[in-house]
Amino acid sequence: MADAPGPGDGLRPQHLTTDREEEPRLGTGRSTVTGHLRLAPMTDRSADATSADQEPFEDLPEQVRVRREKRQRLVESGRPPYPNTVRRTHALAELRRTFDFQDLPPDTRTGETVSVAGRVIHLRNTGKLCFVRLREGDGTELQAMLSLADLGEESLAEYKSLVDIGDFIEVSGEVVTSRRGELSVQATGWTMAAKALRPLPNEHRPLSDEARVRQRYLDLVVNPEARAMVRTKAAVLRSLRSTLDDRGYVEVETPILQLTNGGAAARPFRTHLNAFDQQMLLRIALELDLKKALIGGVDRVYEIGRTFRNEGLDSTHAAEFSMLEAYEAYGDIESMKALLQDLVRGAARSVGRTVVSGRDGEQIDLEGPWRSAGLHELVSEALQAEVTTETPLQDLRDLADGRGVELQERWGTGEVVLELYEKLVEHTLIQPTFVQDYPESVRPLAKPHPSKPGLVEAFDLIVNGVELAPAYTELNDPVIQRERLVEQSLLAAGGDPEAMDLDEPFLRAMEHGMPPAGGMGMGVDRLVMLLTGAGIRETILFPLLRPE
RNA sequence: GCGCCAUUAGCUCAAUUGGCAGAGCAGCUGACUCUUAAUCAGCGGGUUCGCGGUUCGAGUCCGCGAUGGCGUACCA
User: Which CATH superfamily is domain A92-194 in?
Assistant: First the structure.
């Protein structure tokens, strides 16, 4: 609230830009009718520069000017630059599948006549024989050859003068192999499928990091790794769903717009619902609504969805990210361990990477055994000194001091042990490890451990030094739940009872009885990062960026 | 938040001590019926991120700002 931007400066300039420049263009694009009608005036270069809504033609980069002129020539020569569709009998991949394994000798004529389409990524125009390489979405490429003999003078001349790298074109003809033995379509005709007005970037040098993110669509055209990432993430999502579905979990969707935030402690994004004249928040977690579903009898329930946290951004944190949360009635942390192993291993198999490289070069075999270790045990190992729930606060503080770990004054033993773990241990846990037996004070929504006083049934799955998924035997005592939420809310409100923001509908639901349950939440992007070794900005297709 | 580094043609990058702003790809004109980062000949393309300053002269030095990267801090 205090940090909300004032109603002026930051927003205003953007607004002006939108009004002046974007709107007229949107108008052209959105309405098919006017869109077509307005094609012609584009050539009207004399359109006085006073109409500031369109960049003057003369100011455009040379290569855009050239392509716009070609577009216009296409219109005038009766070859629409953007036809509704073009004939296409085979995907490039289909032809590759059919012919690649036939080992055709050079100069073969297959007798098969096809129409193919794709983006032009390579052009070789010689006098009487032209080569063009087409690429389709997954990166499959196929060459076409356009010869004077087969096309005739006019068609070939038009092709040479109107087709650029970056355009989508259709080529029909016979499937052949070239004199060099390359599978090709020997063209008898071509059509423009969609004219590109801007050049593709240099294929042979990687785009700068910023360009790759800002113009991901170009990264996808030019960079096989970017194409693979999109498909890897999709495969991971499919695998997660199928693992859960196979176990009888039911997928649900719960509201992204919330009245109060719960399930995590992060600063939310704020927005406004006009119909109720109500301030709303974007969810920071899925937990509370999924528990309501559990209360209602959706005994195995999960959601995969976007959550939003208004916090700092870095190579492992994004403002919006995908989360999987799953809750299982009559489950506990042990069933969550089994579920997580299935989920992670299933995802790894689905992308063919069950052994991945750790940050320190160590290999991580996800099919191998996963360790379970107590928090105090791990901290003791790191400190070479026995630490238990009985260790006095002052001793812990001395140990932290000796290792240069800074502590906050108000912390108790639980927080101090957790801090020691996070600073000294977490990043060293490369192999899959369930870190468990947390002090009650640092995991307020988990149930007490049945045999270890002061500890709760909760774990964090750590792989490659990164937290992948926390899980609890979920607290379902509505009285304690209310106490904890009140505590949390008071803390968040800075001790001001008036500013407390309790989720009463959730508490009321809890009072109707929630079955004993295990629950967990997994960062989907982090799983993809683990399986690919990429940073979070690579796993998110269009990460948030400041306006240019 | 703080610190360091970067920003030059459509893309990726050069530019010596402050002294005419360049290359490869891409583009344009021409040659070439087997190219595939083709080759050959010729040509065009710049608000050097923005605003100010120092200087005879600034891509280069100084100040402020913008954007990005890295580090660091904060973060159920």
Answer: Nucleic acid-binding proteins (2.40.50.140)
A133 beta carbon to strand B: under 7 Å: yes
A15 φ, ψ (degrees, to nearest 5) = -60, -45
d(CA A320, CA A305): 10
Q: Which of A's residues 179-198 have CB atoms within 7 A of nucleic strand B?
A: 179-180, 182, 184, 198
Measured over all CA atoms, what is the biggest interatomic distance in chain A, rounded to whole angstroms?
A: 91
- Please report the DSSP string for A343-404 in residue order: HHHHHHHHTT-SEEE-TTS-EEETTS--EEEEHHHHHHHHHTS---TTS-HHHHHHHHHHTT
Determine the protein residue whose CA lies at the shortest distance from the C1' of B39.
A126
What digits encode the pLDDT tens for the residues A124-183? 999 999 999 999 999 999 999 999 999 999 999 999 999 999 999 999 999 999 999 999
H/E stretch holding A148 reads: helix A148-151
**CA A512 from chain center: how many Å?**
37
A127 touches strand B (CB under 7 A): yes
Q: How far is CA A237 from the centre of its chain?
A: 11
Closest nucleotide over all strands to A262 (CA to C1'): B76
Please, how many CA atoms are within 13 Å of residue A172, restricted to the half-sphere of its CB? 11
- What token pair was written down for A334? 């042990």
Asked whether strand B has any atom less than 7 Å from the CB of A122, the reply is yes
Identify the residues numbered 200 to 239 in chain A whose C-beta atom is closer than 7 Å to any atom of strand B: 201-211, 213
Q: What is the interface pTM, i.e. ipTM, of the complex?
A: 0.88
Q: Where are the domains of chain A?
A: 92-194, 224-370+431-476+514-539
What pLDDT sits at residue A1? 34
Give me the architecture of the A224-370+431-476+514-539 domain, per CATH: 2-Layer Sandwich (3.30)
Residues of chain A with pLDDT under 70: 1-59, 492-500
Scan residues 397-436 of chain A and list those with Cβ within 7 Å of strand B.
406
